[in-house]
Amino acid sequence: MVVISQHIIDQAKQLRREFHARPELGLKEHGTARKISERLLSFGLEVHSGIAETGIVATLRNGAGPSIGLRADIDALPIQELNDFAHISQNPALMHACGHDGHTAILLGAARHLSENRHFRGTVHFIFQPAEENAGGGKMMVDEGLFERFPMSSVYALHNWPGLPVGDVAVSQGPMMASQDNFYITLTGKGCHAAMPELGADPVVAGAQLILSLQSLISRRLSPLEQTVISLTQLQAGEAINVIPETLYMSGTLRCLSNETRVTCWRLIEEYVNAVPLPYGVRGEVRWEWGYPVTKNHPEQAEAVRAAALHSPGVTRVHFNNAPSMAAEDFGYLLERCPGAYFWLGADGATPSASLHNARYDFNDDLIPLGIGIWATLVNRLLKD
C-alpha cells in the first residue's frame, strides 16, 4: 500500500491555504499558475504552460510504458467569502467555494510523491486546468491540442463531495454529472393599456403558459427513465403596472444525463417556444448558450478507480454505480476525446461541510492525504513497473 510522507502532506495543506487566500477567476489564474509551475519545476518535471491561457501540463517520465493524465481545476468563483479563519480570501468578491484549491494541492502532492517514488513504468501528465466554472477551460485545452501534444491512454479527475463522509469514494460506470445548457427566450406580443387587454397581445400570459408547458415536457414528451431538469430561473417584462408590455424575456437551464436526451430536449423546447404562444397572438424565439456535455465515465477506467480506491490508505468505503448529480463539470469534454473516469471524495468531517458554491464553504484538508494516496495508487496500478 502507498505511504505518503507527512512532509508532502503538510506542504500540500499549506499550499492549499495559500491558494485559498489568493483566488483567481477562470483564465485569469496567473498568480496561481506561477505558483503551480514553480512547484512542479522544483520536483524535476517538464512543465508546459500557457495552454488555454493559464493552463499547465507537467510531465513525469519513468521509462517506456503507457501514458495517463491526472487533472485538477484551478479557478475560483465570484463570491464574497463569509468565513473568518486566517486563510480567508484576500481578493474581494472572489472565493475558492468549490474546492479547486484543494484539488490543485492534491495533484501537486501527488506529483511530488511520484517524482520521489517512481514505482511505475511509463509517463504521467499532470493537467492543471483553468476556467472550469462556466468558461469551459476543459474544452479550450482539448481544442488547443491537449491529447495531440500529450498523448495518453486514459485521463482521470476528482472532486470533493459534501454529503459523503471523509474516507468515502464514489465512482460510476457511466454518467457522473449532467450536461448543462442555458436558453434565452423572447416572447413578443403587442403592448396596450392594462385595462384594455383585447387591444393587445399579452406576452406575460403566454409566458405563464409556456413555463407550465415546459415542465410537462419532462413528464409527457420524454420517457420517465430519462433524467432531465428544465428550470426557468429568470423573468423580465414591463415597466409600468398599468401597461401590458410588448416583450417578455425568460431564461433558464437544461440538465440531462444523456447526450441523446439533450438533443431531443433542444428540439422539443424550440417546438414549444414556437407553438405555445401562438394562440395568444405572441411570437416566441429561443437562443441557446451551449454548455458542458454529460460527464460520462468509461467502464474500464471507472473500474480502475474503484480498484485503486479500495487499495488506498484511509479509504473506508467505495460507492460504485450510485446516482449521478445534475450539476455539471467540464471534464466531460476530456472524456469525449479520451477514455477516463471522474470520481468524488467525501468531504464531511465531524461537522458536515458547507455546500459547494456557498460563501461559508472551505475545503476539508483531511481529504489531501486521501487524494494523494488514490492518485499514487492509481498510477502504480495502471503503470505497473
In a few lines, what is going on in this structure?
This protein is 33% helix and 28% strand. By secondary structure, it is of the alpha/beta class. It is elongated.
What does this structure look like?
The protein is an alpha/beta fold. The chain has two domains: 6-177 and 295-382, 3-Layer(aba) Sandwich (Aminopeptidase), CATH 3.40.630.10; 181-289, Alpha-Beta Plaits, CATH 3.30.70.360. Helix content is 33%, strand content 28%. It has helices at 6-21, 30-42, 100-116, 137-143, 146-149, 203-220, 259-275, 299-310, 331-337, 367-382, and strands spanning 46-51, 55-62, 67-73, 122-129, 154-165, 168-171, 175-178, 181-188, 192-193, 228-237, 243-244, 247-256, 283-289, 295-296, 317-320, 325-328, 340-348. The strands form four sheets. Strands 1-2-4-3-5-17-6-15 form an eight-stranded mixed β-sheet, sandwiched between helices. Strand 1 (46-51) and strand 2 (55-62) form a beta hairpin.
Topology:
Blueprint: H1 6-21, H2 30-42, E1 46-51, E2 55-62, E3 67-73, H3 100-116, E4 122-129, H4 137-143, H5 146-149, E5 154-165, E6 168-171, E7 175-178, E8 181-188, E9 192-193, H6 203-220, E10 228-237, E11 243-244, E12 247-256, H7 259-275, E13 283-289, E14 295-296, H8 299-310, E15 317-320, E16 325-328, H9 331-337, E17 340-348, H10 367-382
Parallel strand pairs: 3-4, 3-5, 5-17, 6-15, 7-16
Antiparallel strand pairs: 1-2, 2-4, 6-17, 7-14, 8-12, 8-13, 9-11, 10-12
